[in-house]
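Quick one:
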Amino acid sequence: MSELVQQASKQLTELVRGEMKLAQAEMTEKGKRYGKSGGLFGGASAAGILMLQALVATVIAALALVVPVWAAALIVTVLLGVVAAVLAVSGKKQISKAAPPAPRSTIDNVKADLAEIKRSAHR
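Output:
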């Protein structure tokens, strides 16, 4: 009987170790893929920023057909400033709605659970 228990324990240990090695290999592969995708997203972001810069230059050039180049550049600059200000104000509102950063409802639930466990333990 003790040999069977010992053999079962050994097999269980080997099974757990094998599963851990498999999980480690799987996570390593996933980590490599996430790293590659992060680099690709970074490249896409850089290309997107360059595209937006080219678009701004195109808008300035188009406006320069109607007004002097300096006025076209000034108009586009002011419009971009307004967009930036609106986005900044919207972002500030979202941050104030998210404050405080602690998960208050979760903390309150944990405190309530602990209080209930203490009450149950004292009975």
